[in-house]
What does this fold into?
Amino acid sequence: MFTYSDLRQSLRASLAAFLSPEEAAAEAALWFSEGLGREASWFHAHGMEPVPDGERHQIGGWLERRQKGEPWAYILGWSLWRGRRFETGPATLIPRPETELVLEAALEVGKRLGVRHAVDIGTGTGILGITMALETDWAITATDISEKALAVAQRNALALGAKLSFRPGDLLGPVPNPVGLVVSNPPYVDPADRPGLQRELSFEPETALFAPDRGLALTTELLKQARVRSAPGCVLEIGSGQGDELSTRARVMGWKRVMIHRDFAGHDRVLVVC
Ligand SMILES: C[S@@+](CC[C@H](N)C(=O)[O-])C[C@H]1O[C@@H](n2cnc3c(N)ncnc32)[C@H](O)[C@@H]1O
It folds into this structure.
């Protein structure tokens, strides 16, 4: 008899072929909770029960895809971010926990500046724009250069009951006046780093990851456009080690207050200018 406990053991072992033992155990727990709806507490009562064939095949199919490098969020089709479920697929970046730092900084800066409008540039799954729409009374516009990503964000807004407007296009181009607070997690990976990146990243859209000029091009252009359009400020996710150079560029453009927030690992993560 092949029980749920056996399945968990063998899944951990299979995942440990390409993950650390700790990551494999954590991911196996996610497959059970998010994929099969079976939480850890369920195991105490049912771990010794036999696994129905349907569930064994389902896990086998997921494993085949995962062994080829496909990220779990794409296999599952959604991600939890700040406690909400966002449809996630190959047209969108997978929401990252560190992007919550951008949201928290945006909520704080927006409140301090008394903004009434904000834009989420490069919305992807919509995490930033939708969350601002749900957690503030600001008027929110979300944009993306990818119409496929924008369609995912629109479905997520509908599913979560968020009211905001969506516009396709390049950076601030499609945003009406007044622009409001500019919030974004733009592509900021240096294309030169591509060979050393995790294989999972090759499943995510290139336009969501890479930017010319060592990853700084889109962030720089966004800071420039926001200044020209008299935005009250910008809150932008940035890459580790990009803080100094972007701060210098922002000051040269005339932004008066420039701050870098670091993430829990101590890396540059959020650039705030106003
Ligand atoms: C790093 S992803 C961020 C997605 C989402 N905001 C998040 O934090 O998970 C960057 C997004 O910017 C979009 N993008 C890339 N270049 C753009 C441009 N020039 N104008 C607007 N959006 C762009 C990509 O399609 C992608 O959805």
Observations:
- DSSP finds eleven helices and nine strands in the chain.
- The domain at 79-273 is CATH 3.40.50.150 (Rossmann fold).
